Each structure stands twice: as C-alpha cells, then as structure tokens.
Amino acid sequence: MLVDTFGRTATDLRVSLTDRCNLRCSYCMPPEGLDWLPKPELLTDDEVVRLVRLGVERLGITEVRYTGGEPLLRRGLAGIVGRTAELRPRPQISLTTNGIGLDRLAGPLAEAGLDRVNVSLDTLDPEVFRRLAHRDRLADVLAGLAAARDAGLTPVKVNSVLMRGVNDQEAVPLLRYCLDQGYHLRFIEQMPLDAQHGWTRRDMITADEILGLLAEEFALEPDEAEARGSAPAESFLVDGGPARVGVIGSVTRPFCAACDRVRLTADGQVRNCLFATEESNLRDALRAGASDDDLAARWHAAVRSKRAGHGIDDPGFLQPARPMSAIGG
After folding, report:
1. Quick check: 199 and 319 in contact, CB under 8 A?
2. Would you state the pLDDT for residue 203?
3. Side by side, which strands form the sheet with 92-97?
4. What would the pLDDT profile of 278-328 be if each residue is shown by its tens digit?
5. DSSP per residue over 90-156, as a string?
6. For the segment 81-100, what is each residue's pLDDT rounded down to a tens digit?
7. What is the C-alpha to C-alpha distance for residues 245 and 236, in angstroms, rounded to an integer?
C-alpha cells in the first residue's frame, strides 16, 4: 500500500494523459495557450498501462481517473480504458473532461469500461463561455453531457468554478439546470493553479459565499446520510433531497488530512498533491529497464514524502511551476 508518514493511504490514482487542451479557460492558461510537452517526453499507451497495472495489482489503487489537459484528445484513450478495465482487482475508472467530443466518444468509452465522468461547466451563457474559455463551444459541452448520461456514465458530475465579476451570478441557474438534467453539480473554489500566476484570495469566491448564493433560491442542509470520508466535496441536500449539491472548498475548507490521492503526470512524474513542488520521475526508470519491484519501491518512496497539507495559508507558499493543465486534476 502507498502509505505516507501521516498514515494516509493513497488509493485514488489520477493519471494525466496529455497537457494539451482545446479550451483556454482563464483560470488555467492564457488565451494564446502554452508550450506543450514534446511528444517523446509523454508516456506511451503501454507505459501508462504498465504503471496503472502496477498501482492496481501491487500498490492498492482502487480508483483510476484519467485527466488532462483534455484527455479526450488522447488518440489511444478508449484502448487505455479498456486495458484498465481488464485489471484484477478491477478499479473504478472515471474521466475528467471539458466535454468537447464526448458526444461522439461517450458510447465507445462506456463500452470500453469507463464507469463515469466529471465534466467542467462554468456557465450556461454562450457569451460568458466565449469570454471565459476563448472558444465558442458551449453547445458541444452540453451535448457531451447529455451523451454521457445516455451512455450510462453515471452519476454524471459537473464541476463549476465561480469567478468574481465573471460568472458568480450563475450559481443558481447552474444548479437548477443540473437538477433538471439529473446531473450532480459540484462547485469548486478557484485554486492558485493558473499558468499566469494571477490568482488572488481576494478575487476567489469562497465556499461560504457559494452556499450563500444558493441559499437565496434553495433550502440547503448538510447531507448527514452520505459519509464524506476522503471525498473532497461537502454534500448538501437541496430542498429536502434527494437531490444534492457539492461544494469543494479546497482553499478555505481543506481536506488534506483525509486525502487519498496520488497523481501521475503525462510525462511520468509522481506528484503527491496538486500544489506539490517536488516530483518523482518514474518514466526514466521505466525506460531504463527498471523492474516492477524497483518501480514500486520508487513509488513508495515518493508517497512517503507527502506533506501534511497544501500549505496555501503558509507565509512561504509558492505556487507550483506546473499549471493545472500539466498536472492533471
């Protein structure tokens, strides 16, 4: 098992398949995009599957989530999902995506073994979407959400980030839309993971503010029946239930003490936290002929170095050099 020095066990593996994205969301990257990782530095499909297999069969990983960048841009995605589904014990397999292209791929991914999806949706207003993402693709995202639901990739979770002066007036419309469509909405505090390093606490919409905005139209009460465990979202019943909404207060309500995640970047680096400043290189060892025993030992050593928390409130906090698109959510 991947156990750190604080007694936390990593069972949830987030695997980035690419740092590329077809949107330019302002809280992630500049409008002109970024310098993408050179293709030779990226793990091949076989290398991804080997490391995932090692995590599942030898290191206690029970959930694998494929992320990006935008993972739907990875040509071999369905094959990777299918080979992951063949592992024993079979892990839960999920995908975090912006939804563009999901209308075509939801069916094939479900057939390959994908269990569910998380789709990013920050606005229902086409003009706000264009300003925020610098692309006119809202209709594609909504079509992808519907296709995921129809393909049985449920519960379909929607991730929304509210930004002051940009889309903070859409908390209620977003929740109403998700309730109508049968999606599970989760609001996420904006985190300091943008490539521009422009994040400020002053501009962030906090979890308390989000709950206040929702309370103007809905009756919310803590969902006592749903044990949070290591889940990042606090769950609230909407108007008495059974519908729920989640709020992820990564900054103001950190859940580091129960964190069970470990990350593998598209270029084969182990990261213990979104905000980690250290990485452990498995790719070079793998390509140099390392055995499974050696790779497992390196992975164990990497997780043992995990810190107690993300440290955003520490005076010496430094934003990681990699932006979110190059880490994987």
Report:
1. yes
2. 80
3. 220-222, 234-238, 244-248, 184-188, 157-160, 116-120, 92-97, 63-67, 12-16, 261-264, 269-271, 280-281
4. 899 999 999 999 999 999 999 999 999 999 988 776 656 777 778 778 887
5. PPEEEEEE--TTHHHHHHHHHHHT--EEEEE---S-HHHHHHHHSS--HHHHHHHHHHHHHTT--SP
6. 999 999 999 999 999 999 99
7. 5
A 10 A CB-CB count for 180 gives 8
Name the token pair of 298.
């390196």
Q: Both tokens of residue 93?
A: 């397999």
| Beta-carbon count within 10 A of 89 CB | 9
Could you tell me the two tokens for 85? Answer: 């589904």
CB atoms within 10 A of CB 182: 11
Contacts of 126 (CB under 8 A, 6+ apart): 136, 138, 139
Distance separating alpha carbons of residues 79 and 106, to the nearest angstrom: 14
Shortest CA distance to 1 belongs to which of 266, 304, 306?
304
Contact by Cβ (8 Å): 116, 156: yes
Residue carrying structure tokens 């990777």: 80
